[in-house]
Amino acid sequence: MLKATLAGLSAHKLRLALTALSVVLGVAFVAGSLVLTDTLEKLFTKLIQDVTSSTDVQVRGKQPFSGFGPRAKVPEALLRTVREVPGVQIADGTAAGYAQILGRDGKPLTSGGPSIGLSWSETPVSPLRLGSGRGPRAANEVVVDAQTFRDQKMKLGQSIDIVFSGPSERFTVVGTSRFGTSDNFGGARLTAFQLPTAQRLLGLPGFLESLEIAGDEGVSSKVLARRIRDRLPDGFEAITTDSLVKEQTEEIQEGLNFFGIALLVFAGVSLFVGSFIIFNTFSIIVAQRTREFGLLRALGASNRQIMRVVVAEALATGVVASVVGLGLGVLVAGALKSLLSAFGLDLPDSGTVLLPRTVIVALVVGIFVTLAASVLPARKAGRVPPMAALREDSPGDDDRTHGYRTELGAAVTTLGLAILALGLAGDVGNRPSVVGLGAVVVFIGVATASPTLAGPLSRWIAWPFVSVFKLTARLARENAGRSPKRTASTAAALMIGLALVSFVAVFASSIKASAFRVLDTSLGADFILTSRAADQSGRGVSSELAAALARRPELSAVAGMRFGPAAIGAKRVRVSSSDPAALAAVANLDVQQGTLEKLGPGEVFVTESWARANKRGLGDAITFRFARTGNQPLKVAGLFRQNGLLRDSDHLVSHATFDANFEFEGDSFILAGAARGVRPAAARTAITEELRPFPQVTVRDQVEFKREQEKELNRLLGLIYALLALAVVIALLGITNTLALSIFERTRELGLLRAIGMSRRQVRAMIRWEAVVIAVLGATLGLPIGVFFAAAMIAALPGDNVGGLTLPVGQLVTFVLLAGAAGVLAAIFPARRGARLNVLEAIAAE
């Protein structure tokens, strides 16, 4: 049977090559995702090891809430204590914070990474190394990372402006720095200043971010850390460099694992789509080789031997496709990196890492998917009787299975609906996950029953075309309806892609509409001021800005918003803060009890939902644990309804309470309202004048703010659509493959049509219309599933995260039209091949 297998592969090279292409693309995506994450993990790990190679111990503040919230800053006086510990050879401290370079146009330079300001030190324990020039020796001198220096075409001695949480200042560039052995760290822009200058500019007078210590020769890092730990006050810790590297490496791995899983989900979708194509291809090939398999049975081959022939062909296809996909995966990793960079996620350059695990996973996944998709066609081939060798016709679909498939599809769909109902109404831990599982089961049920729907839907879809294009469209309709299982299987691949695309579109549209409703109902401010400092580093803009704006007569109220971490019992919470009277004037929190304007020190407003869940009411005392002041009781002074304005914070306090318990890190954003009788343009001019020292702050009115939020969401959607595009491309390859195989199957039929007068143009049109019918059928099945999935997921989300379902009708209609157009493109090759058939040879074909 080996010769039969090799002969089958040789005889169907083109058909199997088209099938293998879907596996190649899916495996390439899997391999590319793994290569990219492994490469980045190795890069960041090496950078951390290089930076800490001369350090034995680090001293830092303890994290107050088990991995949540900022660490306490280290008093500079503690540096002197550490230097006196026996065994300490070098001890130095680092100040760090937000610092952003301004371009020649006065606007902040942005990149995919944060903008970080550091204190400069030339000791071996410093994370920075001098690249060119020298270190800063005066308060107005700065060192810039080599990558930014090169990208911005800077020169030593030139002046640049740098903005912090407060006003910008001018500095002279005196040198370039490297982060360990790299010119840059993950796309970040680094600037370094003298220590006293850095402490002043970064809001750390008398404090440091951490202490780095190198020990005497012969003193182990563990012994040194223990000695230093004995001298530290409560709230601080000394850890060895090995522990630090392990901790930071695990954090990087956690972030990259999430990123890698997201990419692998898209790769899995592509392979799932490809499995439909493989199944369809082998089903068609088996049907076309019925006489061949019947002849082998007549010559003595058993049904198992016939099955092994088909499985062996699938195995060979899977192996070749997986190997090619693995090689292509290295290129895909580069393409994914470029795609992420195009969407603002700049990643550092590095060598490619191809681990044995990637090779094994790529090969196993590709071969398994191919073999799994070929099992049913192989079983069908094994059941071909010897008498099939005497038949001259090609068998079509086996109508006897339609009822069975319908019943099975209905049963699976019912099971999926039951799981959905459990997720929506039942008491389950993770409702969105349960709803997602139910939606997937519903999808499988619809795909199982789709052959029953393919015939009627094909006729309905083709009806407008038949009424206009008559003959060619009618023949295309009959061709699509003649083999409903094949048509449904081909359309199912596109159905998956369009179901996911429509789900994303509907879900995003609903989130967008909900966010805009929150702005319309909760935000009364005329202007919203946001800070790049808060966006990139979590540190907001100086309170001087809000104070200066409040003094302007053109503005009626100015409310700066601040946020900080705390804990209530064992649960971590997010506390928000504002000026109560100003916030009441520029926002509507839908207060249920109490008076927001009267919120005073030692009091807190809580959301109605939080109070109900925790059985708290007006006048009750809640004990908050703050990193700075410990346990502090706050009295409930009012209840309000949650909305997105406070960034999902359930607790609101006054600035007086906030500043008494938190280390102030600036306003995250500021709301401002125009004074009565003042035109918006005049109010904006007043704000712009106060913003001159704060170029990191952007002012927008409500319309501009909505447009900016929509733009950010659209960027994310663009990335998701780009990743889903591979699944859609594979589905279109499936349409091409199916139509190309149908040309072989209908060779005699096409010859007869040509013989009785059909032109080549009409043959091409017929095949194109068949492709359009299949593509639109996939859209017709996929879009409702996607909308249904989105509606279920929205209903499963906790609280009022999304206000309701919003259908982007224009987008959904566009998806259907694009599906039809894509069908035309997918039919180009099969249509040309069908039109070029020799009439006499086609009539004589068997």
Briefly say what this structure is.
The chain is an alpha+beta fold and 846 residues long. It is built from 26 helices and 24 strands.
Assign a percent range to the helix content: 55-70%
Strand residues, percent = 15-25%
Class by helix and strand content? alpha+beta
Span of the ends, CA to CA? 24 Å
Mean of residue pLDDT? 83
What's the total count of β strands? 24
In this structure, how is the largest beta sheet organized? 10 strands, mixed
Secondary structure tally, helices: 26
Low-confidence stretches: none
Question: Which word captures the global form?
Answer: globular
The quaternary structure here is single chain
Radius of gyration: 33 Å
How would you sum up this structure, described in words?
With 846 residues, this protein is an alpha+beta fold. 57% of the residues lie in helices and 16% in strands. The strands form 4 sheets. Strands 15, 16, 17, 18, 19, 20, 21, 22, 23 and 24 form a 10-stranded mixed sheet that branches. Strands 4, 5, 6, 7, 8, 9, 10 and 11 form an 8-stranded mixed sheet that branches. It is globular and about 95 Å long. It starts with a helix and ends with a helix.
